[in-house]
Every structure is written in C-alpha cells, then in structure tokens.
Amino acid sequence: MKLSIGIVGMPNVGKSTLFKLLTNQNVDIANYPFCTIDPNVGIVNVPDERLDSLFKLEESNKKVPAIVEFYDIAGLVKGASEGQGLGNKFLNHIKETQVILMVLRCFKDDSIIHVENSVDPIRDLEIINSELILKDLETIERRLEKVLGEAKTGKKEAKEEAEILERIKNLLNQGKLIPDFVDEPALKDLNLLTTKKQLYLLNGNETDVSEDLKDKIKAEGGDYVISNLGELTNLDSLIKKSYEVLNLISFFTAGKDECRAWTIKKGWLAPQAAGVIHTDFENKFIRAEVLAYENYLEASKTQRKTGEAWQISKNKGWVKIEGKDYEVKDGDILVIRHS
Q: Could you give the residue ranges of the DSSP H alpha helices within 152-185?
C-alpha cells in the first residue's frame, strides 16, 4: 500500500516548483501558462526518524522507507472542461490517486503573471473544484447512459445503480464535492475526483492567508498547509499532513537484512497489516509478535551488541503475542508468524 497524491492548480501558482522540491527532479518550470504538458510522476520517500533509528541500531544492510507518488499535471484554467488550456486532458492521470493536493497562490508578485490577472485564492479554489466537478459529471453521465440501458432490460442491479448515479449527478450539478461517497460500491471503478480527500497547499506566508480562505477550505471538508515555496527546501510536513488526512499510520519490520516501513490505514488488524507485506501472510496469519517503538528504543539503551534490543524487550515483557483481533498501532514493530 502506498500513498499517491495528485497535484492540481492554476498555471503559475507553484505546482512545478513544489514538484521539484519534493522529488529533486528537473521538471519544466517556466513563467507562462501550460508549460507542463505531460504528467510528471515522482517517487518520494516518507520521512520517518523512527525508521532511521531502527536502521542504525540494527545495523541493517538495507533501509526501505514507505513512499509517496506525486502526480503533477498541467495547470487548470476556467473553462478547461470545454477545451480551454491543457489541464483537462490530464485529469485522468490523477484519477488513481488518493489525495488531491490543490496548490493555491496566496503570495503577491507582479513579476509572475496570473492567468486570471489577479491573486485571489478563493476564486482559484472555486474554479479548480468546478473543473473537477465537470470532469466527474462527464464520467457519471457516460456511465449513467450505459446503466439506464441495462435497467430497461429489467436488471435490478442496474436500476439500483442508476438511482445512485442520479443522486450523485444532482449533487455535482449543485456544485458539491462528494467525499462521503468514496466507499460507495457503484462508484468504485469510476475513481471520481470529487470523492477524494483534499489537501490545500497555500503558497505564501502566514500574513498572505486570509481567515476567509481558511474558512472556505474547512467548509469544503479539506485541510491545509501554509508554505512559501520560494523559500522552502523541506516539505516533510506536507507528507505528514497527507498521512493525517487519509488516516494512515506506519508499522515496521526490522532485522539484519533490512529495516522497512509499511503504510496501512489506522484501525487495521494484524492480518491486514501482514497482507501488506505479502498477500499470503494475511490468509495464513497465525499471530504477530509486537513491540512498540518506544520500548524498543528504551531497550536499545542497554544492549551490548547489535540486535539485542528485541531479546531485552522480551525479557521485560514488552514483546506481546497478538492474534487476529489485534489493532496495529502507529510505530509498532512486527514479526509475523504464518503457516
């Protein structure tokens, strides 16, 4: 399981700058609209000091962090759904992502043009969400046409799906996002953009961000990070915030061969976590040996040789034997036993 994030925004708001900061890849950045005409995909390590410590203390041969995939597409403009600009052509590239990261320009700089000729992040937010809604309407209407045809033949499932699609269509026509429908079975294979969690990167300083903008984001059900991309070199907080938005946590496996971080949903049980390591581990799960990272760290203070912390923790009763009903906690170190 990995975290994937689609970056959207108007042209010249800092999207490509953000992508370059995150991935250290040389992407095409220019001071004019539509310079990014192909989707850029970057793989970024998830920063985690706990994994770094485990790697050093175990003297492992390899360290494998969790990863995030970032998809950067061409800037969206008003009327993109009607063919304006290039961004609409590439919205399909972010349909598979879990989070929409909307970059909003809050800073003022007359030397950097804005496609709408003024800096207004609330207006930009509304334009982008409108284009996402219009893209989803296009997808819904195409699917609805097919389902209604099936419903006419008396197919019960098709009739039920058509009713759900009509309901979603009405909400979208009212200009509403639909994150509450992310788990609706009828929408699963459609990967609608408006069902995804939204995170906003407000490009500017704290003084550039109005309370009205913060209130607007909250009203949309989103969260935000304020960063001046022109000055920032470290965006770890953005990745951590993305984990919070999606309710994700990390657990670890550790040993001489490798130390690795794994991403799971908060609330997952031990067999589900085991399945992230290997699908067979979930089906053949017997038990898990569990050690909290904090206890491992404490035990490592008294170890006299590498790898002794686990045995010290066992002696202290810190290593727990857990079954199929155990809910994995953030920072757990697991050893999976399976048939």
A: 156-173
